[in-house]
Amino acid sequence: MTYVDEVYQRVVDQNPAQPEFHQAVKEVLDSLRPVIEANEAHYRKEALLERITTPDRQILFRVPWVDDQGQVQVNNGFRVQFNNAIGPYKGGLRLHPSVTLGTIKFLGFEQVFKNSLTTLPIGGGKGGSDFDPKGKSDREIMAFCQSFMTELYKHIGPNVDVPAGDIGTGAREIGYLYGQYKRLRTAYEGVLTGKGLTFGGSLARTEATGYGLLYIVNEYLKDHNDSFTGKTVTVSGAGNVAIYAIEKAQELGAKVVTTSDSTGWIYDPEGIDVALLKEVKEVKRARLTEYAAARPSAEYHEGRGVWSVKTDIALPCATQNELHLEDAQTLVANGVQVVAEGANMPTTREATDFLQENKIAFLPGKAANAGGVAVSALEMSQNSERLSWTFEEVDSKLQAIMADIYQNISAAAKKYGKDEDYVAGANIAGFEKVANAMEAQGIV
Ligand SMILES: NC(=O)C1=CN([C@@H]2O[C@H](COP(=O)(O)OP(=O)(O)OC[C@H]3O[C@@H](n4cnc5c(N)ncnc54)[C@H](O)[C@@H]3O)[C@@H](O)[C@H]2O)C=CC1
Ligand SMILES: O=C(O)CCC(=O)C(=O)O
């Protein structure tokens, strides 16, 4: 067995019943084969792959809170501090009933490589809970967030670990979490990102992941003498990433015809009305049926189906493993040119392989959705210097970061004879910086 295969088997054996974590590790390790094989004895002696696939620390805790009926509820809380070789742990908090330790480990592992690609000094971590924010009152959300932070604050700090938002954690939740941290620590410091603009948040953080996704696709198109003008784009999701991806795609001249949530999807041949989508999702926190009710050109369908729509560019922005092999086959049959991941690992391995075999440009989440965490790192910088930069300043830094990521992953792929394989390029470029820092810091 090669060293890479041995390490993968070790991950499977030591982390039973965590299929998403296995999937994320396998994709990275498979990409790293040429790098490892070029220096296998050295990496094996240093146990570098064992160390990089094992979190530094996994924190599991009880989150009790009282609901509006006076009933005590108990959820599971998680924070996985995966790797801090290049900076403090950094990564979001996911609140969704499907969350398990395995989900958080896969997300934390991905975050290590993504954060490395941003070129900024941030390590990788992720956290969350199986708490379901859907249908809860503001008071219930606050009670949960305060209880969650009452344990989490012991493990985080502006130079230690800086959480942020993810699925189910937006501005409201970050506000409640920050309030409780401040109260427990008696310190006003940049311990969370995605904060409100009146208490240390950065302009353009809300937009950053979706905008960044469009900036990197734009780099790809420019590099291939193409542009968004006149292109049809399909997007899944209707949350933070999806909304700002749709907004920027339309600004760049494309027509976006789909959006979806966990119960259904919209086909709007006249192009998604972003102001209406924001009203339905950000203000009313309602279902997409309300979008369809207010928009005569829109069709609403139950279930999934976004990937059946003919498109030039497909942007999965909802959740993991939402784009399957059959979807990839339909996209290719319909002439798709680019698939770029706004969500984390939304494309199954079989679908990714099929798209790449068919020479579709595939930009993986680690690179394509790194704009969010990159602007989070810029929020940390602004908090450290106690200054706020303008929207234009942050946005132009985001554009430069996404262009650099595209150049770096293209170059890394080329260096190993895998021209235009952006999965390999992202994994290799992300790995090289972290591995180098780990080696320089000794056996820790
Ligand atoms: N918010 C951020 O800055 C970043 C988010 N991401 C990733 O982007 C994805 C979306 O995150 P956000 O937009 O922040 O979350 P969000 O909570 O704002 O929106 C999530 C969207 O996905 C849909 N969704 C969630 N679970 C689903 C399921 N099981 N089936 C179908 N649809 C489902 C929801 O209905 C919603 O439309 C996630 O994979 C997240 O990890 C990645 C980088 C940064
Ligand atoms: O802004 C951050 O720190 C985290 C964003 C995030 O969770 C992600 O990149 O998946």
TrEMBL record:
Site (Important for catalysis): 166
PROSITE patterns xrefs: GLFV_DEHYDROGENASE (PS00074)
Protein origin, superkingdom: Bacteria
Active site (catalytic residues): 126 (proton donor)
Chain residues that bind NAD(+): 209, 240
Domain spans labelled Glutamate/phenylalanine/leucine/valine/L-tryptophan dehydrogenase C-terminal: 202-442
SMART domains: ELFV_dehydrog
GO BP annotations, alphabetical order: glutamate biosynthetic process
Subunit field text: Homohexamer.
Name of the protein this chain belongs to: Glutamate dehydrogenase
Organism: Ligilactobacillus equi DPC 6820
